[in-house]
Amino acid sequence: MLNEQLKNFRLILASGSPRRQQFFKELGLNFEVILKPIKEEFSERLTHFEISDYLAQLKSLPFKDNLKPNDILITSDTIVWHNKKALGKPKNAADAFNMIKSMSNTTHEVITSVCFTTTEKQKTVNAVTKVTFKALTDAEINYYIETCKPFDKAGAYGIQEWIGQIGITKIEGSYFNVVGLPTHLVYQTLQQFISS
Description:
The chain has helices spanning 2-5, 18-26, 49-58, 93-103, 138-148, 162-167, 175-179, 183-195; strands at 10-13, 32-33, 71-82, 85-87, 107-117, 122-133, 168-172. By secondary structure, the protein is α/β, with parallel strands linked by helices. Strands 1, 2, 3, 4, 5, 6 and 7 form a 7-stranded mixed beta sheet that branches. Helix 4 packs across helix 5. The chain starts with a helix and ends with a helix.
């Protein structure tokens, strides 16, 4: 449906995430994946969605000079916001354990920002989802880290994996946002982009 409206555009998804790529396929969109490395660093003055907004925009910079008039570049970043700080991807198993342990028996926020860039304009949108974990035992956390190796995930967990199935008691907001892409916002923003 949306794909027909986008037939005169080239969608570029600048993400190596298999989950984000799968979402684009499920939305029925034709897209190309192009990756350009960038150092994901941000100022400590930034908080909450300012961080993910900034990183999503930062990821668009290496593409700026190469975009053609009919290109729509999509870059994205997800963070977990807990205890007034951003949890990114864990460095190792110990780091992953500490992250998950800190979220045990509490509620945290998962924030995903998506940046849409063309030769003429740029728009960034974000979604915030609240996720509550039950009290997790050390054995449960260790089992999850050993079996699922969640080192490529912000906050060291995937809601769609074992830890989500046994540990998450409540979710407020978009489930797909927690997996890594607020699909409703992507769909809506692309519709606005082609009609404006």
